[in-house]
Specification:
Helix content: 40-55%
CATH superfamily of the largest domain: HUPs
Largest sheet: 10 strands, mixed
CATH topology of the largest domain: Rossmann fold
Number of helices: 11
Structural class: alpha/beta
Order of helices and strands: EHEHHHEHEHEEHEHEHEHHE
Shape: elongated
Number of domains: 2
Low-confidence stretches: none
Strand order of the largest sheet: 3-2-1-4-5-10-9-6-7-8
Radius of gyration: 20 Å
CATH class of the largest domain: Alpha Beta
Number of strands: 10
Distance between the termini: 20 Å
Length: 285
């Protein structure tokens, strides 16, 4: 059974996130690993081991790790019986760089997907956030949820695509992941033109989806950007109109990815949409 790795910063305040992560694991038939990470700091690196400051630093790290494990144990014991009886939940406290730890787990078959929660105050989708470092560098899909979000099963999924061959690979993986939930998947393309060539591209991509992916509940749709309305606004409006449960993007669709997530107005829109976002990285099928 595959494993979802949940990265948790504040175990004492993580009850809602743990319930969401455990519910997701149950729905997708995954196990769950809760990890509290303390990343190496410049202070730790700069202090020689014999110094009193370094000894105090180590003591503080150990206390935080011990408290994290106690909090994890408390939260897991409070999970509903139907969840605890369906999945295996383990937890750990690590002193490691997040990306290095995650990729080590992926490489050794200890994790297959990462889940993160948006920071309530600072936000998530900014180029400088530590979490974006995980999205950009983790060698696995990364599922990101808004702060304190309640779990709902996926019935309407939007896959924001760019009509590329890599999109077919990702759509196939998405269909395989969610098939047992029977969701409707919309392959949504945002364009700045509605000319003949654009319509031909959509028709060709639709034909490829039908012939290459063994899942019937996929539709292909194109939306045209209007004046004073960017791609993120279109996605927000469309996701609301179909009651979407999840937005999926492929990181390698660089222009589209950056258009959605790398500007302040766009970040605000994504946060207001309050939908989980699943970010795939392209690997050969």
């Amino acid at each position: 059974m595959e494993t979802i790795l949940a990265i948790i910063k504040e175990p004492e305040n993580a009850e809602d996130f743990i319930v969401y992560s455990a519910s997701l694991a149950k729905d997708f038939h995954f196990n769950l690993h809760l990890a509290f990470l303390q990343e190496p700091s410049d202070f730790a690196i700069g202090q020689p081991p014999p110094s009193p400051a370094y000894a105090s630093f180590l003591k503080d790290q150990k206390e935080k790790a011990a408290n994290a494990l106690k909090e994890f144990d408390r939260h897991v014991k409070k999970l509903p019986d139907e969840i605890r009886g369906s999945i295996s939940v383990e937890f750990s406290a690590e002193y490691a760089d997040a990306v290095i730890f995650i990729n080590d787990c992926i490489e050794n078959g200890k994790a297959h997907m990462v889940i993160l929660e948006e920071d309530e105050e600072r936000g998530f989708w900014s180029a400088s956030s530590n979490e974006m470092g995980v999205v950009n560098n983790a060698n696995c899909p990364v599922w990101v949820i808004p702060h304190r979000m309640k779990y709902t099963s996926c019935k309407e999924i939007i896959y924001a695509n760019d009509y590329q061959e890599e999109d077919l690979v990702t759509l196939r993986k998405l269909a395989e992941l969610t098939r047992h939930l029977s969701p409707s998947i919309t392959a949504l393309h945002i364009t700045d033109t509605d000319d003949f060539d654009e319509r031909i591209r959509q028709a060709g991509f639709d034909d490829l989806v039908r012939s290459k992916i063994d899942y019937q509940q996929i539709s292909v749709k194109s939306l045209k950007e209007k004046e004073n309305e960017n791609a993120a606004q279109l996605i927000k409006n469309y996701s609301g109109s179909v009651n979407a449960d999840l937005i999926v993007v492929l990181k390698e669709n660089r222009s589209f990815f950056e258009k959605i997530f790398r500007s302040d107005p766009t970040t605000k829109i994504i946060r207001e949409t309050r939908l989980p976002v699943l970010v795939y990285r392209h690997t050969k099928a």
